[in-house]
Amino acid sequence: MTFVNLDSVEASARAFEAQITYLEPNNPINRRYVSAGQEANTGTYAPYNTEVRDGRSISEHFSLDKHGFVHGRHVSQVGDFLDNDQVAAAYPDEAIALIKQLTGADLVFPQGWMVRTPGELAKKKKVDGYQHQGGIQPQAGEAHCDFAPDVAEMVAENYYRQMCPDGKPYKRFISASLWRCFSDGPQDWPLALCDGRSVTPGEGIKNTLVVVDDIPSIEQMKAPIEGEDKMLAAHIYQFNPEHRWWYFSNMNRDEFLYFKFYDSDSSVTQQVPHTAFHDIAAVNPTTRMSIEMRTMAYFL
Question: How are the residues of the chain apportioned to helix, strand and coil, as percentages rounded to the nearest 5?
Answer without folding.
Answer: 20, 35, 45
